[in-house]
Design a protein that fits this description.
Layout (H helix, E strand, L loop, with lengths): L5 E5 L15 E6 L9 E8 L6 E8 L3 H18 L3 E6 L4 H18 L1
Parallel strand pairs: 2-5
Antiparallel strand pairs: 1-2, 3-4, 3-5
Helix pairs in contact: 1-2
Length: about 120
C-alpha cells in the first residue's frame, strides 16, 4: 500500500485529438508532502506528431535525484504520448518506483474522469 499523495492538475478544456497539433499543455504536480515541499524534478515534454512513432522530446526545468528525475520524465512522456499534448510535470518528495505505478494509474484515471 502506498502513502497518500497530492495532485495538482490542469488540462485543456476539450479532450486533445490524437495526432493533432494540440498546443495547450497538461500541467501536473505530484507531491507526498503538500504544496510547501521544495520543487523536485520538473520536466517539459513535447511530442513530435510528424514522426510515425510519436517521438517525445524533453527538457529539464529543475533537477532532482536520478530516480525522481527518471520517474518524472517517464510520466511526462506517457502523458504527452497518450494525449498528443505538451506537458509540464513535477514530482516532489520521496516517491519510489513501487509507488509510481499506482500513482500513474490514478493520474490517468483522474484525467479520463475529467473528460
Amino acid at each position: 500500500m502506498t502513502e497518500p499523495f497530492q495532485v495538482l492538475l490542469t488540462i485543456p478544456h476539450r479532450r486533445p485529438e490524437k495526432n493533432a497539433p494540440n498546443v495547450i499543455p497538461f500541467t501536473l504536480h505530484v507531491s507526498k508532502v503538500g504544496g510547501n515541499a521544495p520543487l523536485g524534478a520538473y520536466v517539459y515534454s513535447i511530442v513530435d506528431i510528424r514522426a510515425s512513432n510519436d517521438k517525445v522530446y524533453q527538457t529539464l526545468l529543475n533537477n532532482a535525484t536520478e530516480e525522481l528525475l527518471d520517474l518524472t520524465k517517464k510520466l511526462g512522456s506517457l502523458l504527452s504520448m497518450k494525449y498528443s499534448v505538451p506537458s509540464y510535470v513535477s514530482i516532489s518528495g520521496d516517491i519510489s518506483l513501487e509507488e509510481f505505478v499506482p500513482l500513474s494509474k490514478e493520474v490517468f484515471e483522474l484525467i479520463e474522469k475529467s473528460y
